[in-house]
């Protein structure tokens, strides 16, 4: 679909690396953030597609005006990642991936609506893009 975007949340080093992969492959994406400061920083770094959401106010979780291809949430904070899962699940029935370095929260993420929990020591999950393009 033409207006489909990949959503990326959680800007750990792994998340930033994943964004570089998306840019290299010229795949349309949006970076999801709940920080106005992070939003400004991302825009200064040349990332124009930034979507700010107040994760504390569910009423502000307006559905974006683009189709969501899939969602990749890089866990930096357990609580924030849970909120991102809830927010994105309210927007789409497409796949939500949570990339974590911990085995503990798997059932919680699944319960909140994540489809895939990927355990990764180094956060390298570019292979998931090959899987989703087929």
Mean pLDDT: 88
What's the structural domain tally?
A: 1
Neighbour order of strands in the largest sheet: 3-2-1-4-5-6
Question: Are there runs of 5+ residues with pLDDT below 50, and where?
Answer: none
How does CATH name the architecture? 3-Layer(aba) Sandwich
Determine the number of helices (DSSP H or I, runs of at least 4 residues): 5
CATH class (first level) name: Alpha Beta
CATH topology type:
Rossmann fold
Q: In CATH, what is the homologous superfamily?
A: NAD(P)-binding Rossmann-like Domain
What is the first-to-last residue Cα distance?
14 Å
**Mass-distribution shape:** globular
Q: Profile the largest sheet.
A: 6 strands, parallel
Strand and helix order: EHEHEEHEHEH
Radius of gyration: 14 Å
Would you give an account of this structure?
37% of the residues lie in helices and 23% in strands. The protein has 134 residues and is of the alpha/beta class. The chain has one domain: Rossmann fold, CATH 3.40.50.720. A six-stranded parallel β-sheet has the order 3-2-1-4-5-6, with helices on both faces. α1 links the parallel β1 and β2. The relative contact order is 0.20. The model has no long low-confidence stretch (mean pLDDT 88).
Please describe the structure with a list of short key phrases separated by commas or semicolons:
134 residues, alpha/beta, Rossmann fold
């Amino acid at each position: 679909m033409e207006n489909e975007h990949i959503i990326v949340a959680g800007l750990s080093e792994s998340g930033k690396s994943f964004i570089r992969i998306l840019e290299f492959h010229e795949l349309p994406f949006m970076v999801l953030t709940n920080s106005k400061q992070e939003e400004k920083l991302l825009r200064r770094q040349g990332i124009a597609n930034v979507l700010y959401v107040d994760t504390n106010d569910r009423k502000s979780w307006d559905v974006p005006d683009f189709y969501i291809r899939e969602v990749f949430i890089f866990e930096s904070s357990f609580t924030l990642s849970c909120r991102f899962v809830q927010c994105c699940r309210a927007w789409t029935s497409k796949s939500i991936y949570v990339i974590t370095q911990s085995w503990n929260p798997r059932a919680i993420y699944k319960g909140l609506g994540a489809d895939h929990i990927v355990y990764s020591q180094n956060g390298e999950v570019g292979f998931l893009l090959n899987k989703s393009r087929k």
